[in-house]
Specification:
Residues 220-287 form the Signal transduction histidine kinase subgroup 3 dimerisation and phosphoacceptor domain. The protein has three domains: 2-210, no CATH class; 217-282 and 423-474, Four Helix Bundle (Hemerythrin (Met), subunit A) (Up-down Bundle); 316-405, Heat Shock Protein 90 (2-Layer Sandwich). 73% of the residues lie in helices and 8% in strands. It contains 15 helices and five strands. It has helices at residues 2-15, 19-50, 55-87, 98-116, 122-140, 146-168, 171-252, 256-283, 287-300, 316-335, 373-382, 412-423, 426-436, 438-446, 453-474; strands at 304-308, 341-349, 352-359, 387-393, 397-405. Strands 1-2-3-5-4 form a five-stranded mixed beta sheet. The model is unreliable at 408-453 (pLDDT under 50).
Length: 476
């Protein structure tokens, strides 16, 4: 039960987080632990061991320990809001520090009083004051600017050194008190503020990567839209023009209307082929490039990636299908689980090309709703009579295996599938519908006889309207 709860917490609070979130969580926990370590080693142990066993020192020592405990709780409570304030996520109001300031004042006064009544040694009092300064400084270092922190630390050092001179009356005690203030300020700047600055740079890089990815997607969409415009814009304009010419020829009963509609049909078929070529080029992927990219991306994420086999000699449709498998598998390795190693193997056996991707660190159960990536891969592979298997194997590893029959690049079945795919696009469907409908055939027949000119005009007008509507949908 306990181990299951720990694994669930690890999955929710660690594995499901991104790289930047993990670094931030680790930094916050480190600050929490640092506060308690200094409070225990500089305040708790020296005071418990060194306090005189008399009523007044015991009461003041217990009060000092209670104040130190409250200081730790307050510092832990303010650590996350202070970090959010430094990173610009939220604003921490000044009144949030009132309680911490009161506790700091008590934690600085009580050791001096204890030393004056002979309850603890002067060096124990100095350590207790240093613990109070460190506990407060680890939070305050995220809220104040560096110049303000330096000025206020210098002022506090002067005040505490004056108090130490009046209370202890020795130069070493005064100098050690000033050194403690300087040390606390240095810890605030180096341990906390530098760590928070590193986190801000990390989050800025994370946002830059997300922006770059969105821009890449937008760029690809613009490129695809530009290619479609270049392919279909001119042809649809010519089709609309020739359809209009066929209407006018049909009004006059001229037989040339048939030639114009034949030309419309030829242009529509040509546009269909060009759209198919654009879609095929957009959807295809290069297997060698995807393998190299997967190795680079996984290596950058700290995952050891080993690739065996070569994509040389595989038909283009097979390479494209397996390249999509590599891309989806790489995404899953990065997003799910906590992988440290990944093996990608490409093999050719008995007329079939096989690709397997295996990684460690796979979660025992999915952390969210199932995605559509593997389902899309199965559909893509089924067009080539391929198969896809994915699941956990021994040793807590996850294995994804794809197999595709080897076919020549110009296989008829592949060409038929590509044709059917391209024909399902709205632009190709509009062009094909406009050029091959019964209305177009009616124009061709009716335009050959003067008696059918009026009917040809009406039917051709309908065809022109359909083609113009399709052109307006594609042309920006």
């Amino acid at each position: 039960m306990v181990l299951g709860g720990m694994r669930g917490w690890q999955r929710r609070n660690w594995r499901d987080r991104g790289k930047a979130e993990r670094v931030e969580l680790q930094s916050v926990f480190t600050w929490y632990a640092t506060i308690w370590v200094f409070e225990l080693t500089w305040l708790g142990m020296p005071v418990v061991d060194g306090v005189r066993h008399r009523p007044v020192p015991l009461v003041l020592g217990g009060l000092l320990l209670a104040v130190g405990l409250l200081q730790c709780v307050a510092a832990n409570r303010l650590a996350r809001p202070a970090l959010d304030h430094y990173l610009g996520r939220a604003v921490l109001p000044p009144r949030a520090l009132r309680g911490s300031l009161v506790l700091l004042a008590l934690a600085l006064v009580l050791p001096v009083v204890l030393a004056l009544v002979g309850g603890i040694a002067p060096w124990t009092a100095r350590l207790a004051m240093g613990a109070a300064l460190l506990t407060f400084g680890l939070t305050y270092g995220l809220l104040a600017t560096v110049p303000v922190l330096v000025r206020r630390s210098a002022l506090l050092a002067a005040v505490l050194m004056a108090v130490a001179g009046l209370a202890f009356r020795t130069v070493p005690d005064v100098l050690m008190t000033g050194f403690l203030v300087v040390f606390a300020m240095g810890m605030s700047l180096l341990a906390v503020r530098c760590g928070a600055w590193t986190l801000s740079v990390l989050w800025e890089a994370e946002r830059a990567r997300e922006t770059e990815a969105r821009l890449a997607v937008a760029e690809e969409r613009l490129r695809f839209g530009r290619d479609l415009h270049d392919v279909l814009g001119r042809n649809l304009a010519v089709i609309a023009l020739k359809a209009e010419l066929a209407v006018r020829l049909g009004r006059r009963g001229r037989p040339e209307a048939v030639d114009q509609m034949v030309e419309v049909q030829r242009l529509a078929q040509e546009s269909q082929r060009e759209v198919r070529a654009v879609v095929r080029g957009y959807r295809e992927a290069d297997l060698a490039a995807e393998l190299a990219g997967a190795q680079g991306v996984l290596g950058a994420a700290g995952i050891d990636c080993a690739i065996t086999g070569s994509a040389a000699g595989l038909p283009a449709p097979v390479q494209s299908a397996l390249a999509w498998v590599v891309r989806e598998a790489t995404t899953n390795v990065l997003r799910h689980g906590d992988a440290r190693s990944c093996a990608i193997a490409l093999r050719i056996d008995a007329g079939r090309a096989g690709l397997s991707v295996e990684n460690d660190g796979a979660p025992r159960s999915p952390g969210g709703p199932p995605g559509s990536g593997l389902a899309g891969l199965r559909e893509r592979l089924s067009e080539l009579d391929g198969t896809l298997c994915a699941g956990l194997v021994a040793g807590g590893r996850f294995r994804l295996t794809a197999e595709v029959p080897l076919r020549p690049a110009g296989d008829a079945a592949t060409e038929t599938a590509a044709t059917a795919e391209a024909a399902t696009t709205p632009e190709a469907a509009a062009i094909a519908e406009a050029a091959t409908t019964p209305e177009a055939a009616a124009i061709a027949e009716a335009a050959a006889t003067p008696e059918g000119a009026a009917a040809a005009e009406a039917v051709s007008t309908a065809v022109t309207a359909k083609i113009t509507r399709a052109s307006s949908e594609v042309t920006p």
